[in-house]
Amino acid sequence: MLAWQVRSPGSDLSQALxxxxxxxxxxxxxxxxxxxxxxxxxxxDLHVAAxxxxxxxxxxxxxxxxxxxxxxxGAGVTGFRPGDRVGVAWLRETCGAxxxxxxxxxxxxxxxxxTGWDADGGYADCTTVPADFAYALPDGYxxxxxxxxxxxxxxxxxxxxxxxxxxGGRLGIYGFGASAHLTAQVALAQGARVHVLxxxxxxxxxxxxxxxxxxxxxxxxxxxxxxxxxxxxxxGDLVPVALQALERGGTLAxxxxxxxxxxxxxxxxxxxxxxxxxxxxxxxxxxxRELLSFAAGHRLTVAVNPYPxxxxxxxxxxxxxxxxxxxxxxxx
Length: 332
Ligand SMILES: [Zn+2]
Ligand SMILES: [Zn+2]
Fold this sequence. Notes:
Structural class: alpha/beta
Bound molecules: zinc ion
Largest sheet: 7 strands, mixed
């Protein structure tokens, strides 16, 4: 089979990845062998390719928004049959025994491993996944529409929860890519007023089309104070900007795995009056099941930018250059 590998992480994306012939992996005990039908292109893949997140495995195959079908079951797997449609997401494995795993916070497990970082992911014809970490997927969506739900959707869903938006509250969304455009729809369905702040005119238009109350530039002041905000853009400069847009007692959640440096905060201006700044670290499987169940009950609009699997490097370069409005998805 063919697989894209991260060979030379760095800012030159045309050199970072190479598509090479490799042996089809064997499913280990407890794993599924999955034929890839579509794989979303996440900003985290860009961070891995660019070296912002050093690879955990030499020549790793990126991709953790995988929609595929089961080809083969590893020893001991029950509950799946060849042909079943499954989703493979970022969280690949946890220890199941530590204090975090036992308390419903498996996203914080120190032993956790990740698809497309610690283990080969979905920029390939086939991949493997521990059956316990594979997701059932909702009906009514194409494989290309399902793919972005698996990270962009799930992480955004967790970030929205971490932002503690009150019912009917005012939500600010900073940056409006794959994750934000799905999260906005979840918030809108829950009755929020959504204000989107992003530099891209196309993304502003998408936000308004999806029902946002306003859309402005990334550094603009929203038209009303915010009860909660989620920062999706990996831009630390926006942290004080978003904190200053919060109402007293409001919360800012930073959704990304990587953020450029945050400038010095001013306690009086940015944090006092009980404004809260929180990070979001991966997700639990429960977050994933909740988001996918939400998507089954509410038809989300997924803005898909399809690319053939052979053009993964182009898709990453387009994402890096802000040429993707919505979600880039590689189609097998
Ligand atoms: Zn654990
Ligand atoms: Zn991701």
